[in-house]
Design a protein that fits this description.
Layout: E1 5-11, E2 15-21, E3 27-34, E4 46-47, H1 49-67, E5 74-81, E6 87-90, E7 100-101, H2 109-119, H3 125-128, H4 137-147, H5 151-156, E8 160-163, H6 165-173, E9 183-185, H7 186-189, E10 195-196, E11 201-202, H8 204-210, E12 219-221, E13 224-229, E14 239-245, H9 246-253, E15 262-266, E16 270-277, E17 288-293, E18 301-308, H10 312-320, H11 330-335, E19 345-347, E20 365-367, H12 375-401, E21 408-411, H13 418-428, E22 432-435, H14 440-453, H15 459-463, E23 468-472, H16 478-495
Parallel strand pairs: 1-5, 5-14, 9-12, 15-21, 21-22
Antiparallel strand pairs: 1-2, 2-3, 4-7, 6-8, 10-11, 13-14, 15-16, 16-18, 17-18, 19-20, 22-23
Helix pairs in contact: 9-14, 10-12, 12-13
Length: about 500
């Protein structure tokens, strides 16, 4: 008899969690542990991959113990992971050659300019759905190969392996140096800028242009399928049956299985995904075309994505760098002390601006300060900047897809902020819906794994689990809405060209 529970590894930018779900998609237990953010130079962001692996096993043990369960109680495990974060490790020893280069790392800016100078930033968009940017894995991998001694020769011989964090965890969990599976699912592979999104295979022309040896690349697999058996405690013996990039996992966790359904995850960054079905819509308005998921042998599903680099990270900045709040949750109380933003606007371009602008030369700024301005106005401006950036993406999606958003499903940590959610509904002039379960990223990984082993028969069963917890209706007049948004656009234009 198939076990009744599913385990999900949610390996994020700031922390790693393990959550146990039941057959109804309810949380049984969870555990979480943060990892270090290593910033050796301005714009450089790194993670210790071995620390992340240790944390993964620790939180799995903690979550199982809290529920009084063990590995035999799990039907399968799925992984959702931070995407684009790039790692090289040795096949024989399993040791990383360098710290992982995090998705927000900008050290490859000179390489972006070099590649873009030849044929423009969109030179690979038709094959990959992505513009040239520091964001994606290809140039990060090229930087590692160029910088590390003998890396190119070793990569050509298959002695060192490339992977995003799904590959690193899957390889270690399924045997590592002995028999570890070197795999990446289509959703993660689509973020490397090395996979052709139309056939879901590594593209020989792209590998040649970027100078990447094929021998170091993982095998591309479906998002939902039994890949192998986990060999590490405390999960030994459990099938690994799901892999998804974190934002695609949230789309699945929000049960957005039909074309035209959309979700936005408010985390360290914000990620707005619109399901476009089996059609890969190539963006002309600054969005990304990405593989949403592929279940078993079905055709892959695609999405348009608006990736916003800094949302929750700006709240952390207020807390850690400026000391204006003690806890991230305190920003809502502080921002509510004033009726409006006092004409203060905050552009969080700490590492450039992502969709729909794609301006690596932008940097953060605070505009509109007067003697009237106070810390509450700044707190409100930080929250409002999140909603403005999401509207930027929504406007671009309308241009690309021709679809008019009916509502937006919201999840992630910042979706607990009622002031932000109301302002988001006001800016979009559309309802914003928060589900009862905010852990949609982990839930999506669990759903993929459960579908892979047959715990759930189809996606309709997963739709039946989705329950709305709160709906915010637009309440701001059109004149004020457009005036605020126009001022935001003015502030954004002033952030361009700083570098």
């Amino acid at each position: 008899m198939l076990a009744s529970y599913i385990g999900a590894i949610d390996q994020g930018t700031s922390s790693t969690r393990f959550i146990v779900f039941d057959r109804q998609g309810g949380v049984v237990s969870s555990a979480q542990k943060e990892h270090r953010q290593i910033c050796p130079q301005p714009g450089w962001v790194e993670h210790d991959a071995e620390e992340i692996l240790r944390n993964t096993l620790e939180v799995a043990a903690m979550a199982l113990a809290r529920a009084g369960l063990n590995a035999r109680d799990l039907a399968a495990v799925g992984i959702a992971n931070q995407r684009e974060t790039t790692l090289l490790w040795e096949r024989d020893s399993g040791r990383p050659l360098h710290a992982a280069l995090v998705w927000m790392d900008t050290r490859t800016e000179p390489m972006v300019e070099q590649w873009a100078a030849e044929s423009g930033r969109d030179r690979f968009r038709e094959q990959t759905g992505l513009p040239l940017s520091t964001y994606f894995s290809a140039l990060k991998l090229r930087w590692l190969i160029d910088q590390l001694p003998n890396a190119r020769q070793r990569a050509e011989q298959g002695d060192i392996l490339f992977g995003t964090m799904d590959s690193w965890l899957a390889w270690n969990l399924t045997g590592g140096t002995a028999v570890g599976l070197h795999v990446s699912d289509v959703s993660n592979a689509s973020r490397t800028q090395l996979m052709n999104i139309h056939n879901c295979e590594w593209d020989a022309d792209l590998l040649r242009v970027f100078g990447i040896p094929a021998a170091c690349l993982p095998r591309i697999v479906s998002s939902s399928a039994v890949l192998g058996e986990i060999t590490l405690e405390p999960l030994a013996g459990v099938p690994l049956a799901g892999l998804l990039g974190d934002q695609q996992a949230a789309l699945v966790g929000q049960a957005c299985f039909e074309a035209g359904e959309a979700k936005n995850t408010y985390g360290t960054g914000a990620f707005f995904l619109l399901n476009t079905g089996t059609e890969a819509v190539v963006s002309r308005a600054g969005l990304l075309t990405t593989v949403a998921y592929r279940f078993g042998e079905e055709a892959p599903r695609y999405a348009l994505e608006g990736a916003i680099a800094i949302t929750g990270a700006a709240v952390q900045w207020l807390r850690d760098n400026l000391g204006l709040i003690r806890r991230a949750a305190d920003i809502e109380t502080l921002a509510a002390e004033v009726e409006d933003n006092g004409d203060v606007y905050f552009v969080p371009a700490f590492s450039g601006l992502y969709a729909p602008y794609w301006r690596d030369d932008a940097r953060g700024l605070i505009a509109g300060l007067t003697r009237f301005s106070n810390r509450s106005h700044l707190a409100r401006a930080v929250l409002e900047a999140v909603a403005y950036q999401v509207r930027d993406v929504a406007e671009a999606m309308r241009v690309d897809s021709g679809l008019d958003l009916r509502h937006l499903k919201a999840d992630g940590g910042m979706a607990a902020n009622g002031l932000l959610m109301q302002f988001q509904a006001d800016m979009l002039d559309r309802p914003v819906i928060r589900p009862r379960l905010l852990e949609t990223t982990a839930l999506g990984a669990a759903y993929a794994a459960g579908l892979g082993v047959g715990l759930w028969a189809d996606t309709q069963m997963l739709r039946d689990h989705w329950i709305a917890e709160h709906v915010w209706e637009p309440a701001l007049g059109a004149e004020r809405r457009e005036r605020y948004y126009a001022r935001w656009k003015q502030a954004v234009n002033r952030a361009f060209g700083w570098i």
